[in-house]
Write a structure and sequence with these properties.
- The protein is of the alpha/beta class.
- The protein has a single domain, classed as SGNH hydrolase (Rossmann fold), CATH 3.40.50.
- The strands form 2 sheets. A 5-stranded parallel beta sheet has the order 2-1-3-6-7, sandwiched between helices. Strands 4-5 form a two-stranded antiparallel ribbon.
Protein backbone atom coordinates (compact mmCIF):
# COMPACT_ATOMS: atom_id res chain seq x y z
CA UNK A 1 0.00 0.00 0.00
CA UNK A 2 3.03 2.27 -0.15
CA UNK A 3 3.72 2.56 3.58
CA UNK A 4 6.97 1.74 5.32
CA UNK A 5 7.65 -1.85 6.38
CA UNK A 6 6.10 -5.11 5.25
CA UNK A 7 2.85 -5.26 3.31
CA UNK A 8 -0.26 -5.04 5.46
CA UNK A 9 -2.26 -8.27 5.61
CA UNK A 10 -5.96 -7.50 5.77
CA UNK A 11 -6.54 -10.82 7.57
CA UNK A 12 -5.62 -10.58 11.25
CA UNK A 13 -4.45 -14.18 11.46
CA UNK A 14 -3.16 -15.06 14.92
CA UNK A 15 -3.30 -11.46 16.13
CA UNK A 16 -6.22 -10.61 18.39
CA UNK A 17 -6.04 -6.82 17.99
CA UNK A 18 -4.88 -4.40 15.29
CA UNK A 19 -3.63 -0.82 15.76
CA UNK A 20 -3.01 1.73 13.01
CA UNK A 21 -0.39 4.36 13.88
CA UNK A 22 -0.70 7.49 11.73
CA UNK A 23 1.49 10.58 11.67
CA UNK A 24 4.51 12.23 10.08
CA UNK A 25 8.23 11.40 9.92
CA UNK A 26 8.39 10.87 13.70
CA UNK A 27 5.95 7.97 13.32
CA UNK A 28 7.40 6.81 10.01
CA UNK A 29 10.86 6.86 11.62
CA UNK A 30 12.64 7.84 8.42
CA UNK A 31 15.94 8.22 10.31
CA UNK A 32 15.92 4.74 11.87
CA UNK A 33 15.47 1.14 10.76
CA UNK A 34 11.85 -0.08 10.47
CA UNK A 35 12.20 -2.21 13.59
CA UNK A 36 13.36 0.84 15.60
CA UNK A 37 10.26 3.01 15.09
CA UNK A 38 7.57 3.95 17.64
CA UNK A 39 4.98 1.61 16.04
CA UNK A 40 7.46 -1.28 16.11
CA UNK A 41 8.23 -0.65 19.80
CA UNK A 42 4.52 -0.45 20.54
CA UNK A 43 3.92 -3.81 18.87
CA UNK A 44 6.73 -5.46 20.86
CA UNK A 45 5.25 -4.18 24.10
CA UNK A 46 1.76 -5.61 23.53
CA UNK A 47 1.06 -9.34 23.28
CA UNK A 48 -1.35 -10.36 20.55
CA UNK A 49 -1.44 -6.91 18.96
CA UNK A 50 -0.15 -5.98 15.51
CA UNK A 51 0.68 -2.36 14.72
CA UNK A 52 0.75 -0.95 11.20
CA UNK A 53 3.12 1.98 10.68
CA UNK A 54 1.21 4.40 8.44
CA UNK A 55 3.43 7.40 9.12
CA UNK A 56 4.44 9.48 6.09
CA UNK A 57 7.17 12.10 5.85
CA UNK A 58 5.83 15.67 6.32
CA UNK A 59 2.19 14.62 6.73
CA UNK A 60 -0.13 16.67 8.89
CA UNK A 61 -3.22 15.41 10.76
CA UNK A 62 -5.37 16.50 7.81
CA UNK A 63 -3.54 14.14 5.47
CA UNK A 64 -3.70 11.42 8.13
CA UNK A 65 -7.47 11.88 8.25
CA UNK A 66 -7.65 11.34 4.50
CA UNK A 67 -5.49 8.21 4.97
CA UNK A 68 -7.90 6.91 7.56
CA UNK A 69 -10.90 7.43 5.32
CA UNK A 70 -9.28 6.03 2.17
CA UNK A 71 -7.11 3.21 3.55
CA UNK A 72 -7.46 2.83 7.29
CA UNK A 73 -11.07 1.85 7.93
CA UNK A 74 -10.82 -0.96 5.38
CA UNK A 75 -7.99 -2.52 7.42
CA UNK A 76 -10.46 -3.24 10.26
CA UNK A 77 -8.43 -1.79 13.13
CA UNK A 78 -9.38 -2.07 16.78
CA UNK A 79 -7.64 1.22 17.51
CA UNK A 80 -6.12 4.17 15.66
CA UNK A 81 -3.30 6.23 17.16
CA UNK A 82 -2.47 9.63 15.70
CA UNK A 83 0.99 11.04 16.34
CA UNK A 84 0.94 14.85 16.46
CA UNK A 85 4.06 17.02 16.29
CA UNK A 86 2.60 20.35 17.47
CA UNK A 87 5.71 22.34 16.53
CA UNK A 88 4.52 22.35 12.92
CA UNK A 89 1.32 20.31 12.54
CA UNK A 90 -1.01 23.25 13.20
CA UNK A 91 0.79 25.12 10.46
CA UNK A 92 0.65 22.10 8.14
CA UNK A 93 -3.13 21.79 8.21
CA UNK A 94 -3.52 25.50 7.47
CA UNK A 95 -0.93 25.54 4.69
CA UNK A 96 -2.09 22.47 2.77
CA UNK A 97 -5.73 23.65 2.63
CA UNK A 98 -7.16 20.14 2.33
CA UNK A 99 -9.90 21.04 4.80
CA UNK A 100 -11.54 24.25 5.90
CA UNK A 101 -14.40 25.27 8.19
CA UNK A 102 -17.73 26.36 6.77
CA UNK A 103 -19.87 29.15 8.18
CA UNK A 104 -21.19 26.84 10.87
CA UNK A 105 -17.73 25.73 11.95
CA UNK A 106 -18.06 22.29 10.34
CA UNK A 107 -15.14 20.57 8.62
CA UNK A 108 -15.33 20.67 4.82
CA UNK A 109 -13.12 18.94 2.25
CA UNK A 110 -11.87 21.53 -0.24
CA UNK A 111 -11.98 20.90 -3.97
CA UNK A 112 -8.79 22.94 -4.36
CA UNK A 113 -5.69 22.80 -2.19
CA UNK A 114 -2.00 23.71 -2.26
CA UNK A 115 -1.31 21.26 -5.11
CA UNK A 116 -4.29 21.92 -7.35
CA UNK A 117 -3.71 25.66 -7.05
CA UNK A 118 -0.09 25.26 -8.08
CA UNK A 119 -0.21 23.18 -11.23
CA UNK A 120 -2.60 21.84 -13.85
CA UNK A 121 -4.34 18.75 -12.59
CA UNK A 122 -3.20 16.51 -15.45
CA UNK A 123 0.44 17.08 -14.41
CA UNK A 124 -0.03 16.35 -10.70
CA UNK A 125 0.31 12.55 -10.74
CA UNK A 126 3.30 12.62 -13.07
CA UNK A 127 5.13 15.29 -11.08
CA UNK A 128 4.61 13.72 -7.66
CA UNK A 129 5.74 10.32 -8.94
CA UNK A 130 8.77 12.00 -10.46
CA UNK A 131 9.63 13.80 -7.23
CA UNK A 132 10.07 10.63 -5.21
CA UNK A 133 12.92 9.58 -7.51
CA UNK A 134 14.76 12.85 -7.88
CA UNK A 135 14.44 14.70 -4.59
CA UNK A 136 17.02 14.41 -1.89
CA UNK A 137 15.99 14.51 1.81
CA UNK A 138 17.10 18.14 2.03
CA UNK A 139 15.67 20.49 -0.56
CA UNK A 140 18.35 22.20 -2.59
CA UNK A 141 17.51 25.70 -3.76
CA UNK A 142 19.57 25.02 -6.88
CA UNK A 143 17.83 21.78 -7.67
CA UNK A 144 18.30 20.87 -11.32
CA UNK A 145 15.14 18.94 -11.97
CA UNK A 146 12.42 21.49 -11.31
CA UNK A 147 11.88 25.09 -12.29
CA UNK A 148 11.89 27.86 -9.72
CA UNK A 149 8.14 28.20 -10.07
CA UNK A 150 7.73 24.96 -8.10
CA UNK A 151 10.21 25.74 -5.33
CA UNK A 152 7.57 27.14 -3.00
CA UNK A 153 5.41 24.05 -3.59
CA UNK A 154 8.25 21.73 -2.60
CA UNK A 155 8.68 23.66 0.63
CA UNK A 156 4.95 23.41 1.31
CA UNK A 157 4.95 19.66 0.70
CA UNK A 158 8.22 18.48 2.19
CA UNK A 159 9.69 21.18 4.44
CA UNK A 160 8.15 21.75 7.85
CA UNK A 161 8.94 24.93 9.74
CA UNK A 162 8.46 25.79 13.39
CA UNK A 163 5.12 27.47 13.97
CA UNK A 164 6.36 30.69 15.54
CA UNK A 165 2.93 32.36 15.48
CA UNK A 166 1.36 29.62 17.59
CA UNK A 167 4.30 29.78 20.01
CA UNK A 168 4.51 33.58 20.27
CA UNK A 169 0.86 34.52 20.07
CA UNK A 170 -1.64 31.67 20.50
CA UNK A 171 -4.51 34.17 20.70
CA UNK A 172 -3.86 35.80 17.31
CA UNK A 173 -6.41 35.50 14.52
CA UNK A 174 -4.09 33.17 12.60
CA UNK A 175 -3.46 30.94 15.61
CA UNK A 176 -7.14 30.73 16.49
CA UNK A 177 -7.92 29.71 12.91
CA UNK A 178 -5.38 26.87 13.08
CA UNK A 179 -6.57 25.75 16.51
CA UNK A 180 -10.20 25.70 15.37
CA UNK A 181 -9.25 23.66 12.30
CA UNK A 182 -7.26 21.20 14.41
CA UNK A 183 -10.23 20.84 16.76
CA UNK A 184 -12.49 20.02 13.84
CA UNK A 185 -10.04 17.48 12.39
CA UNK A 186 -9.66 15.71 15.73
CA UNK A 187 -13.44 15.74 16.13
CA UNK A 188 -13.82 14.05 12.75
CA UNK A 189 -11.29 11.38 13.75
CA UNK A 190 -13.18 10.77 16.99
CA UNK A 191 -16.61 10.65 15.36
CA UNK A 192 -15.67 8.47 12.39
CA UNK A 193 -13.87 5.97 14.59
CA UNK A 194 -16.56 6.08 17.27
CA UNK A 195 -19.22 5.26 14.69
CA UNK A 196 -17.15 2.24 13.67
CA UNK A 197 -16.54 1.21 17.30
CA UNK A 198 -12.80 1.80 16.97
CA UNK A 199 -10.74 3.26 19.81
CA UNK A 200 -8.88 6.50 19.11
CA UNK A 201 -5.91 8.04 20.90
CA UNK A 202 -3.30 10.75 20.34
CA UNK A 203 0.42 10.77 21.07
CA UNK A 204 1.90 14.29 21.37
CA UNK A 205 5.56 14.41 20.34
CA UNK A 206 7.78 17.30 21.57
CA UNK A 207 10.61 18.89 19.62
CA UNK A 208 14.35 18.49 20.12
CA UNK A 209 14.97 22.10 21.26
CA UNK A 210 12.25 21.80 23.89
CA UNK A 211 13.70 18.68 25.45
CA UNK A 212 17.45 18.73 24.82
CA UNK A 213 18.64 22.33 24.61
CA UNK A 214 16.62 25.51 24.40
CA UNK A 215 19.42 27.43 22.69
CA UNK A 216 18.83 25.26 19.60
CA UNK A 217 15.84 27.53 18.95
CA UNK A 218 18.37 30.22 18.07
CA UNK A 219 19.48 28.08 15.12
CA UNK A 220 15.99 28.16 13.57
CA UNK A 221 15.34 31.89 13.52
CA UNK A 222 13.52 32.44 16.77
CA UNK A 223 13.06 36.10 17.65
CA UNK A 224 15.68 36.93 20.29
CA UNK A 225 13.28 39.00 22.39
CA UNK A 226 10.66 36.28 22.30
CA UNK A 227 13.30 33.70 23.18
CA UNK A 228 14.28 35.61 26.31
CA UNK A 229 10.63 35.99 27.28
CA UNK A 230 9.96 32.27 26.88
CA UNK A 231 13.08 31.37 28.85
CA UNK A 232 11.54 33.00 31.93
CA UNK A 233 9.22 30.01 32.11
CA UNK A 234 10.23 26.55 30.94
CA UNK A 235 6.56 25.86 30.28
CA UNK A 236 6.48 28.71 27.77
CA UNK A 237 8.29 26.68 25.13
CA UNK A 238 5.56 24.01 25.27
CA UNK A 239 2.64 26.19 24.22
CA UNK A 240 1.75 24.16 21.09
CA UNK A 241 1.98 20.89 23.02
CA UNK A 242 -0.25 22.25 25.80
CA UNK A 243 -2.74 23.51 23.22
CA UNK A 244 -2.94 20.01 21.75
CA UNK A 245 -3.48 18.50 25.21
CA UNK A 246 -6.30 20.95 25.92
CA UNK A 247 -7.99 20.09 22.63
CA UNK A 248 -7.84 16.37 23.44
CA UNK A 249 -9.31 16.98 26.89
CA UNK A 250 -12.04 19.22 25.48
CA UNK A 251 -12.98 16.54 22.94
CA UNK A 252 -12.63 13.67 25.42
CA UNK A 253 -9.91 12.03 23.34
CA UNK A 254 -7.42 9.88 25.29
CA UNK A 255 -3.88 11.11 24.78
CA UNK A 256 -0.28 10.71 25.84
CA UNK A 257 1.75 13.90 26.06
CA UNK A 258 5.38 12.85 25.83
CA UNK A 259 7.03 16.06 26.99
CA UNK A 260 6.39 15.64 30.74
CA UNK A 261 7.64 12.09 30.35
CA UNK A 262 10.79 13.13 28.51
CA UNK A 263 11.51 15.93 30.98
CA UNK A 264 11.40 13.31 33.74
CA UNK A 265 14.75 12.01 32.51
CA UNK A 266 17.99 13.46 33.84
CA UNK A 267 19.33 16.26 31.67
CA UNK A 268 22.16 14.12 30.31
CA UNK A 269 19.74 11.33 29.40
CA UNK A 270 17.45 13.60 27.42
CA UNK A 271 20.03 14.03 24.65
CA UNK A 272 19.86 10.27 24.10
CA UNK A 273 16.19 10.54 23.16
CA UNK A 274 16.93 12.42 19.91
CA UNK A 275 19.33 12.33 17.00
CA UNK A 276 21.44 15.45 17.24
CA UNK A 277 21.79 15.73 13.46
CA UNK A 278 18.19 15.77 12.23
CA UNK A 279 16.35 16.26 15.58
CA UNK A 280 14.17 13.20 15.15
CA UNK A 281 13.81 10.60 17.88
CA UNK A 282 16.71 8.20 18.26
CA UNK A 283 16.18 4.42 18.47
CA UNK A 284 16.19 4.87 22.25
CA UNK A 285 13.64 7.70 22.05
CA UNK A 286 11.39 5.64 19.78
CA UNK A 287 11.59 2.72 22.19
CA UNK A 288 10.66 4.87 25.17
CA UNK A 289 7.79 6.48 23.24
CA UNK A 290 6.49 3.09 22.13
CA UNK A 291 6.71 1.63 25.63
CA UNK A 292 4.88 4.64 27.08
CA UNK A 293 2.18 4.46 24.42
CA UNK A 294 1.68 0.79 25.26
CA UNK A 295 1.54 1.22 29.03
CA UNK A 296 -0.54 4.37 29.43
CA UNK A 297 -2.59 4.70 26.23
CA UNK A 298 -3.03 1.75 23.89
CA UNK A 299 -2.88 -1.11 26.38
CA UNK A 300 -5.46 0.35 28.77
CA UNK A 301 -7.85 1.21 25.93
CA UNK A 302 -7.61 -2.15 24.20
CA UNK A 303 -8.24 -3.87 27.52
CA UNK A 304 -11.22 -1.51 28.04
CA UNK A 305 -9.70 0.12 31.09
CA UNK A 306 -11.86 3.06 32.11
CA UNK A 307 -10.59 6.60 32.63
CA UNK A 308 -8.20 8.82 30.73
CA UNK A 309 -4.71 7.33 30.33
CA UNK A 310 -2.31 8.59 32.97
CA UNK A 311 0.79 10.60 32.33
CA UNK A 312 3.78 10.88 34.61
CA UNK A 313 7.33 9.66 34.23
CA UNK A 314 7.51 8.22 37.72
CA UNK A 315 4.43 6.05 37.34
CA UNK A 316 5.80 4.62 34.09
CA UNK A 317 9.21 3.87 35.65
CA UNK A 318 7.67 2.09 38.60
CA UNK A 319 5.58 -0.11 36.32
CA UNK A 320 8.61 -0.91 34.15
CA UNK A 321 10.78 -1.77 37.16
CA UNK A 322 8.01 -3.94 38.60
CA UNK A 323 7.77 -5.92 35.37
Amino acid sequence: MGYRGEDFDRAKGDFKKRVLFLGDSFVMGDNVAPEKTIPAALERALDGVEVFNMGVLAYGPDQSLVQLLEDGIDLNPDMVVLGIFPANDFQDIDRSRIFSLDGGGHLTRNADNVITDSMPKFRTVFLLNYLQYVLRPMIDKNHKFLGREYEFLLHDLFSDFYDWELLYNPDSTGSRKKIDLMRAILSRFRDVLGTNHIFFGVVIIPSYPNIVREDAFLEIDIDQQQFERLKDSKEGFFGPENTTSRLCEELNIPYLNLYPEFLGFEEGERALLYEGGDWHLSPFGNQIAGDLAASVLVGPLLSKTSGRPRTGQQSWRRESEGN
